[in-house]
Design brief:
The complex is a heterodimer of chains A (453) and B (243).
Chain A lengths: L7 H10 L31 H7 L20 H15 L1 H8 L12 H6 L6 H16 L1 H6 L10 H11 L7 H5 L6 H15 L4 H13 L7 H19 L14 E4 L3 H4 L3 H15 L3 E2 L16 H18 L3 E4 L3 H15 L25 E3 H10 L21 H6 L4 H10 L24
Parallel strand pairs in A: 1-2, 1-3, 3-4
Helix pairs in contact in A: 2-11, 3-10, 4-10, 6-10, 8-10, 12-14, 15-16, 17-19
Chain B lengths: L1 H10 L1 H4 L2 E5 L5 E5 L2 H19 L10 H10 L11 H19 L1 H6 L2 H23 L4 H12 L11 H16 L7 H7 L1 H4 L22 H14 L9
Helix pairs in contact in B: 3-5, 5-7, 7-9
Classes of the chains: A mainly alpha (453), B mainly alpha (243).
């Protein structure tokens, strides 16, 4: 994070003076020839050696992206290229996306990183080309023969640095793939890119440390079980102070009907704690038989930003705990990477969850058939169902002092297709609800929270 | 799923929703609908399809009904002799637009590779040689058909009075056929295989199996409790083992 964020006037002046692709100015050279410059504010800190060691990843060492020499291990190129070859054989998406891009440019002005920076390598098509150019050089005969003419280049340390810079400037929101005629998912390319960076030992601490903490304590923040319990209980005290209502969250309780898992951000600080308090108040009000878990105290999954294997490793605790506690199904709080993994990967990776049942809302009797196999329901689906079946007495006038709009969450909207439930809830609790401009909502919205991930 | 794929392949649904982002003079970002790529791409691909299907008249002894139907629809303007096929005009216009589009903006120029210009020019050359054969040189189509039939039955005779332009056309088509499998033109098959387009969004409803789902060692609850048992007992949290 930079210590000197620029003023808006500085940014506007820079935009007006300097040439930018956004204004239609040509950079005057190929993107391949534009060097990567690590400067204050545009890179993430390298993962610390003890963190990498605890995770068993390659090449733990003290290094910084600003260094000239990244101290990569001998033979790193072979490791990375073997890794690429392995993944080409494993993932149909990756293999296809390396071949079928036609450079139509539909995706090029869709990425918020490009629109914010004007950096050509942030155009999704070029971001994929960063990897694709090496793929061509190694794995296609036209690339091996004709090299630069067909846009192929060898893997060098400079290229790896470029990957480090730009695969951490993709938030895997998949806005680009909405507009691509073939649905080429730059996030898939970024995922593979990050796995390859991981193989080369170029990880960032922002991702690796939470992964390490999550392995040890069950949540990204390293909150130990007694601390988790005391934080939740202090939130319960706040609720009692404000409303006079006593809420009774339980922890690690066997035989509860539902296991409730939410991201640790909800007990960490603002505004998450308000969300958490909201959950606890709602569950108390409807008399839900649920339990929290200190072992499965993280819905989110930073393993998803590291590799497929780490995703599976971190996500396993949800089913593991659900089986141990003997719950019927799992209710999940809101979190983007959480639900990307839960919706699209969890069942395949960690399932089948035969020890649970098809989720049925104990309050309304609604069968959540869309979650029959994974057995995990999103809080927005659950709440929208409660409102739809008139189980909540709501007075929207209490929110009349607010003007609301809804900023879709990328993994919920694009990843799950859940566009209407949050809007339904909002319309029923607020009298004023305004949609944002057409090309910025629903499938086309821009990502909500671009963490460095 | 079938509906979504059909809309994509036949009507380029994803390009239809395309927008263009532009910076206004006072550095604000604005988005507007941008359907030029959609219409040019759609016209280009459909015209090529119709042209290729019309060529069936050369490969089958009796001209099939669908070819005659295509020809009569194609030549609906009923001008020139031989009849002007509207697809010939459309394919030239749309391909030219696609080339110009690639050259016009800095964004397009920076992302375009040589392999993006080459197929466009190759196809344009094939089209121009075809147009030349039909409207300018007016080659002897009967002789062409005899030659093709000779080729397909491995008993080719020496060509008669067909001009060189035919061999240019044939050569360029062969180049295209050779170039096809190693190029981006494989998007022809790729569009059907793309998992982000051909898979239903039912992954919580039906389990998708990964045949090579690797075993991963996880930190079990037992290991977790071993580390934190004392703290958990002090905090009145339930534990599996008391010691």
């Amino acid at each position: 994070m930079t210590t000197n964020p620029p003023e808006l006037s500085e940014l506007t002046a820079e935009y007006e003076l300097a040439p930018s692709l956004l204004k239609g100015d040509s950079p005057g050279r190929e993107w391949l020839d534009i060097p990567v410059v690590f400067q204050d504010g545009n890179w993430c800190h390298a993962a610390k050696p003890d963190v990498i060691e605890s995770l068993g990843f390659n090449n733990p060492r003290k290094w910084s992206p600003e260094d000239e020499d990244w101290q990569l291990e001998k033979g790193w190129q072979k490791i990375v290229l073997d890794g690429m070859k392995e993944r080409l054989g494993q993932f149909r998406s990756f293999k296809l996306f390396m071949d079928i891009c036609v450079r139509c440019g539909a995706c090029s002005d869709k990425c918020h990183f490009f629109l914010g920076s004007g950096d050509p390598k942030n155009m999704p098509v070029v971001r994929a080309e960063l990897l694709r150019s090496v793929y061509r050089h190694e794995f296609t005969w036209s690339g091996k023969l004709l090299k630069g003419i067909v846009g192929a280049r060898p893997l060098t340390e400079e290229v790896l640095k470029e990957w480090f810079m730009y695969f951490h400037q993709c938030t895997e929101c998949r806005r680009c793939s909405v507009f691509c005629p073939f649905g080429i998912d730059t996030a898939e390319v970024t995922l593979v890119g990050r796995e390859l960076l991981n193989l080369a030992g170029a990880n960032i601490n922002w991702i690796s440390k939470p992964v390490s903490d999550c392995t040890r304590t069950g949540n990204h923040l390293g909150i130990e079980p007694h601390t988790f319990k005391s934080v939740v209980e202090s939130l319960a005290e706040d609720i009692e102070d404000q409303t006079g209502v006593t809420v009774n969250p339980t922890f690690n309780r066997k035989g509860a009907e539902i296991l409730f898992i939410t991201p640790s951000g909800d007990i960490f600080g603002d505004p998450g704690i308000y969300t958490m308090m909201g959950y606890m108040m709602l569950f108390e009000h409807i008399g839900l038989d649920y339990t929290l878990s200190t072992y499965a105290s993280e819905g989110g999954n930073f393993g998803y930003f590291t590799s497929n294997q780490t995703t599976k490793k971190l996500n396993a605790k949800m089913y593991h705990e659900a089986e141990r506690l003997g719950v019927k199904w799992i209710l999940g709080g809101e979190c983007g990477h959480m639900w990307r993994v839960v919706h699209q990967y969890m069942d395949t990776m960690n399932g089948p969850a035969d020890f649970m049942e098809e989720p049925v809302s104990p309050i309304t009797g609604t069968k959540f058939r869309n979650a029959t196999s994974t057995k995990m329901v999103h809080i927005a689906e659950f709440t929208a169902d409660l409102i739809h079946q008139n189980k909540l007495k709501l007075d929207p006038r209490r929110n009349d002092h607010l003007k609301t709009t809804f900023h879709d969450s990328c993994n919920i909207a694009r990843g799950m297709g859940m566009l209407e439930e949050p809007r339904f809830v909002l319309r029923n609790v607020c009298n004023s609800f305004n949609e944002m401009p057409e090309h910025t909502i629903r499938k086309k919205h821009f990502v909500v929270d671009p963490e460095a991930v | 799923m079938v509906g979504r794929m059909s809309l994509e392949v036949l009507f380029f649904r994803s390009l239809f929703r395309n927008t263009k982002a532009e910076m206004t003079p006072n550095a604000n970002l604005a988005y507007g609908s941008s359907k030029w790529l959609w219409i040019a791409g759609l016209v280009f691909h459909w015209s090529l399809l119709v042209i290729v299907l019309r060529h069936y008249r050369f490969f089958l002894a009796a001209v099939p009904g669908f070819v005659e139907m295509l020809e009569s629809t194609d030549g609906f303007l009923q001008v020139t002799l031989p009849t002007l096929y509207i697809t010939d005009l459309l394919v030239v216009l749309s391909a030219t637009f696609l080339v110009l589009r690639r050259l016009a903006s800095a964004q397009m120029r920076i992302i375009s590779l040589s392999t993006d210009y080459f197929p466009l020019f190759l196809i344009l050359a094939i089209v121009f040689s075809g147009i030349s054969m039909r409207y300018l040189e007016k080659v002897d189509v009967v002789a062409v058909k005899i030659l093709i039939h000779g080729l397909t039955s491995f008993s080719a005779e020496a060509p008669g009075e067909i001009g060189a332009i035919f061999y240019v056309h044939l050569f360029l088509v062969c180049v295209l056929a050779m170039y096809f499998p190693s190029s981006k033109l494989m998007h022809m098959g790729g569009v059907f295989l793309s998992p982000t387009r051909n898979l239903a969004n039912n992954s919580r409803e039906k389990r998708h199996i990964n045949p090579w789902n690797p075993e991963v060692k996880i930190r079990t609850y037992a290991e977790y409790e071993d580390e934190f048992r004392e703290k958990m007992i002090k905090a009145d949290l339930p534990v599996e083992k008391t010691e």
